[in-house]
Write the structure tokens for this entry.
Amino acid sequence: MTVLVVTGTGTEIGKTVSTAAIAATALARGRSVAVLKPAQTGVAEGEPGDAAEVARLAGAVTLLELARYPEPLAPATAARRAGRPPVRPHEVADAAGKLATEHDLVLVEGAGGLLVRFDETGATLADAARLLGAPVLVVAHAGLGTLNATTLTTEALRVRGLECPGVVIGSWPAAADLASRCNVADLPESSGVPLLGAVPQGAPALPPAEFRAQAPGWLAPRLDGTWEAARLAA
């Protein structure tokens, strides 16, 4: 995968820390990595956004942010209220394509879920992924309710002819409840795609060097890691 789009089943689901884990694991393999954030919302000018957080945790990645809107809203709404131009899917595809000519891996981190609107036409991250011909990784919640949200997201990808390599749990609790433990087996069956990792709760608070050392153990071999779902279930 030269370009991998990272989406989630909702907001505050662990997309950024999962993106950082993927970037750190790729860097450990000697690959060059770029991180593209098409639309950063809810962050003022001069403040570190999601892309900067990926770099803090993962290390030497190239960062590109196409647009920033101060209010924590869907990109289309945030752009309209800020009186600024929205991000268009072709701009995302063009930027990711250029980065892909200079890097081994380009990670495109969306805002919110897959079908959050980018502009007034209803364009979404899925449209950018289609233009890129890129697979879309889904980051999901661990606990109750995740089966429905994750399955809806993977079905939306299939309807649009987009490849989904799998699902990563964005925050695996230190004391997993019954629903979370059952979801390790149920998520692949429900979503139709494999479980490709689980980032532990509290991972963003780790010192960066420790985060980078541990990240490969949170991701499956498909994402260059060493993680196994059976080990998590146990």
